[in-house]
Amino acid sequence: MKFATYRNGTRDGQLMVVSRDLTKAVAVPALAVTLQEVLDDWEGIAPELQTVYTALNNGELDDAVAFDESLCESPLPRAYQWADGSAYVNHVELVRRARNAEMPPSFWTDPLMYQGGSDDFLGPKDTIEMGDTSWGIDFEGEIAIITDDVPMGVEAADAGQYIRLLMLVNDVSLRGLIPNELGKGFGFFQSKPSSSFSPVAVTPDELGDAWRDNKVHLPLLSEYNGEAFGKPNAGEDMTFDFAQLVAHAAKTRHLSAGAIIGSGTVSNKQGTDHGSAIAEGGVGYSCIAEVRMIETIRDGKPTTGFMQFGDTIKIEMKDNDGASIFGSIEQKVLQYQAD
Amino acid sequence: MKFATYRNGTRDGQLMVVSRDLTKAVAVPALAVTLQEVLDDWEGIAPELQTVYTALNNGELDDAVAFDESLCESPLPRAYQWADGSAYVNHVELVRRARNAEMPPSFWTDPLMYQGGSDDFLGPKDTIEMGDTSWGIDFEGEIAIITDDVPMGVEAADAGQYIRLLMLVNDVSLRGLIPNELGKGFGFFQSKPSSSFSPVAVTPDELGDAWRDNKVHLPLLSEYNGEAFGKPNAGEDMTFDFAQLVAHAAKTRHLSAGAIIGSGTVSNKQGTDHGSAIAEGGVGYSCIAEVRMIETIRDGKPTTGFMQFGDTIKIEMKDNDGASIFGSIEQKVLQYQAD
């Protein structure tokens, strides 16, 4: 199944069931008004939604409308939990190497995860409004899952069963604020402003064979200012799969239905010491910071700058037939003006 | 006004308006079913709730029931945002001194704040179920506020106006997991399991003169295993007031209605180098870790242990007439057993 949330003037928007090919959508107010309602009672509501979804795909619903990504908020415009892993340890190792720091070996066995803020997500086409480009505005292309209720202490081997939906993420980061903030020892806060998610959230079965081992085995496409920037395969070099990330998040707490768990920036090692840009024949990157690390390792200092006002980022994933699975995140950075 | 949330088998519970003296309560389904609904439209709903509250206090409501704290969940059983400051810098300085580390001077001007998880709060009388006492189970007595929508970039001087409600918090912490987790650089996650909140959330005007300068000028009472453990005044030694904490949280993001911002562990400097326990004539502490730091500074090592299975913690605040303002958090630590 595929779901989106249309803006309707409320805080949680209007749930829409979206056809597999992203051309049609239908509201299902008799079943649920919001996506959180569905997640709150997945077992009860999902079977009826499946009936609607099948009919929608078959063109049997008179009340279906043309699906319009521009009307979408993030599938959960606000959520109760957003925990973001850093499962592509290659990315973490690069960060460390760029500053001549050794990565602790435990990073290969104990996932990095930060607690994100989830009260005010951006929509997939919303501008990223920031006060100052000196904050080092960066995108981070990621995959995220949404869980059902997950019991505390769940083992990784059992955690995959609680994964209900998948989305793409732009985990907007403020690189200039990170060193001071992490130096204080309490983790990210101001340096991780509102994230945005793909227009559509999909059940794992929509990915077919591309969903296996609790990973998404497809390239994540990033286009920066209209140019191909990254196409790393999200199934490669993912040291911790989503079941392991869920288990990590649930070690000392229950997770409630609708909890979002992110993969961290998708990054492929590419069989070289420092990866390769798409222009160099490689798969490129899912954030600017990684390019800057490569430049630092190779040239002694970074030459690529972070995002400027007016810059755009597009993040998408296509199936093996070239069809968009989640719709696209497409955002422009603009100067924030207080009302 | 005073509000509580009764368990009713739903995820968000049943909003109850509670009388000032905590003896009576009434449901207001015609106005709002949950506290989040009220926060989502404070301007629209609060005036009508004020009318109900006045009538309840005057004993004019036939449908009022006896208020029962044991039926309460946390006022927001789950929330979209829980950000916890560490505004009593004395507490932070002690932590550092206990490990012979200097505290950066910026800590007196730039608030510490961590992003907490908010999808599964404990109720005020719920057991704290943990897998292992070697995790170093500790309580942290704190004050928290709940905001209305707050615009990104708000100045501290303007931020106080967005404070709608106040609560007490037990920010349960797992001290044994903190060093490894902070050492990884991404902040707290597993070391900060579900927090619990006082049965009742109150509007700032309920505190009368005790609410001024965006601080609560009353002692926070902690009772550990039935013995008085702390009574520091929450209005003293609070380096950053709640307006400053809100402004810090909103620097790079909007905050959505219902965002909870915590003060951090309430701690008084007590005019000595290392504070004093209540038995020594001092005001004591709001967490065990602080006692251990004092012991470490004084004796070279800590002698007080963290919480064991069966231990209890009670956190409460009384007005100048000795009446409980928020009701009490009363929790017992138990061994977690997976279902």
Automatic annotation (TrEMBL), chains A, B:
Class of the enzyme per the UniProt entry, highest EC level: lyase
Keyword Membrane appears in the UniProt entry: no
Entry EC no(s): 4.3.2.3
Fumarylacetoacetase N-terminal domain: residues covered: 1-78
Record-level Gene Ontology MF annotations: ureidoglycolate lyase activity
Keyword Lyase found: yes
Domain Fumarylacetoacetase-like C-terminal intervals: 82-333
Domain of life: Bacteria
Listed Pfam families: FAA_hydro_N_2, FAA_hydrolase
Swiss-Prot/TrEMBL keywords: Lyase
The protein, known as: Ureidoglycolate lyase
Gene source species: Pseudidiomarina piscicola
Lineage: Bacteria, Pseudomonadati, Pseudomonadota, Gammaproteobacteria, Alteromonadales
